Amino acid sequence: MNSSSTDSPYMLPGINPDNTLGAALIGYSFACAVFGVLTAQVTNYYQTFVADPKQLRILASLNFRTILSRSLELIHVILISHALYHYTITLFGSILEMITSHVVWSLVTQVLVAGISGSIVKLCFVLRVWRFSRRNVFITGLIFIVVLVQFGFIIAYTIAAYQIQSLLDLPKLNVLGSIALATGALGDVITAVALIFYLRKLRTGYTEPDSLVNNLTGYAIHTGAFTSAMTLLTLIFFDASPHTFQYMAVYFVVSKSRALEEDEDIPGMHLVPFKDGYEATTLSKKSEN
């Protein structure tokens, strides 16, 4: 008489390769795809916006923020790769050992790396709110505090995760993880709302500048909604199935989607602040032959 995989002595009830290694592999695949798009941004910029000043083109690819972001995302992918290799190859065929043995260090470290990368991107958006709000201390400070609070809980989660004995102890970290994810979603929403509010105040009544403002407003809406939805989805999976890796199918992609959104404006549109207001400018695209 054949028994199902869920009846195997090597499985625990409700835990199987599909909702553990399978879910992690899905998240890893999407993370690699987004990372590929992320690294192609600068190349695409050079090919499309050849009329931009040389200094601006160099700055777009070689500034400290870009290098740091790319490096952190590369490290994040490497850490995920190591963790998946450990659980799929080193512990091949033993789901029981996978969930009862000590958590591999790379699976914990990638949380911190993703947190650092995501916080850097969020701080870039904080600077945008600071400029567009004409240095509004209250709203900028509020967003900044939310970012710091989330990063603090990420550090606390990482420290606690290094101390647990196995993946079966992950539910003990639910409070820390849930607060970190919830504050992340809150920060995204507040940032998007603030950008939309202050961008709409930059309307001039002229077609070209207002078109630029409309595009940037739509960009703020889309980025805020997408990252918030991704974070909330991770939170739902994390709380609903803490013994599985289902949340990893979404979480692995979150930090890269943030970095991708931050880099989408490299070839895009800019608002240049002046003492008496803002002047809308656009980067010139490649001239047609």
Order of helices and strands: HHHHHHHHHEE
Provide mean pLDDT, rounded: 78
Number of strands: 2
Q: What is the straight-line distance between the termini?
A: 73 Å
Largest sheet: 2 strands, antiparallel
Q: Strand-residue fraction?
A: under 5%
Structural class by secondary-structure content: mainly alpha
Could you name the key traits of this structure?
two-stranded antiparallel sheet; mainly alpha; disordered N terminus; single chain; about 5% strand
What's the layout of helices and strands?
Layout (H helix, E strand, L loop, with lengths): L17 H31 L5 H9 L1 H27 L4 H6 L4 H28 L4 H27 L10 H27 L6 H34 L7 H16 L5 E6 L2 E6 L7
Antiparallel strand pairs: 1-2
